[in-house]
Amino acid sequence: MRHRNGGFKLGRNTSHRRALLRNLVTSIIINDRIETTLTKAKASRPLVEKMITLGKNGSVHARRQALAYLLTPASVDRLFSTVAPRYATRNGGYSRIVRMGPRKGDSAEVAIIELLGAEQELSEKAAKREEARTRKREELQKQLEERSAGEDTDPNSSAA
């Protein structure tokens, strides 16, 4: 019986579970929002909160602890320079889990875990992506027009 034994096993052994959670936490700090299963989101939430608390501390020891857990130095820099100052006046509750419903393939409950207050940054990123897409579409349209114009004036064309 597992009475009063908390924690999420996630169907993995200890090293695999630790690696999975480290990857999730690193991704959340870098991207501000990830989509994963509900159980993984619930398991990673306290770890994300601990990392942000370390970032708010800001000491060298806290930075080394974050480096020991997070996978990339870039994620640590982002944690201490961007993410943690965002929550300077907030005491906990830095993340939100939003249920998305069942996944089509295996019917697993999918959720989005995101950092609060990151909506502005995420909308700016989305706007940049949309702008890049429209620019790319316009360039492709120009190329198609040039090709079709070039084919119409081609003296070697076999149209007789």
Name the descriptors.
160 residues, alpha+beta, 3-stranded antiparallel beta sheet, 5 helices, 3 strands, 60% helix
Residues in helices, as a percent range? 55-70%
Which H/E pattern describes the elements? HEHHHEEH
- What overall geometry do the principal axes of the alpha carbons give? elongated
Kindly state the mean pLDDT as a whole number?
Answer: 91
| Structural class label | alpha+beta
User: How many alpha or pi helices?
Assistant: 5
Radius of gyration: 24 Å
Percentage beta strand: 5-15%
Head-to-tail CA distance between termini? 86 Å
How many β strands by DSSP?
3
Sheet with most strands: 3 strands, antiparallel
Poorly predicted ranges = none
Strand order in the sheet with the most strands = 1-3-2
Task: Describe how the helices and strands are arranged.
Layout lengths: L13 H18 L1 E5 H20 L2 H10 L3 H14 L8 E8 L6 E7 L3 H34 L8
Helix pairs in contact: 1-2, 1-4, 2-3, 2-4
How would you sum up this structure in a few lines?
The protein is α+β, with helices and mostly antiparallel strands and 160 residues long. It is built from 5 helices and 3 strands.
Description:
With 160 residues, this protein is α+β, with helices and mostly antiparallel strands. The longest helix is centred in the C-terminal third of the chain and has 34 residues, at 119-152. The protein is elongated. Helix content is 60%, strand content 12%. It contains five helices and three strands; from the N terminus they run αβαααββα. Strands 1-3-2 form a three-stranded antiparallel β-sheet. β2 and β3 form a beta hairpin. The model has no long low-confidence stretch (mean pLDDT 91).
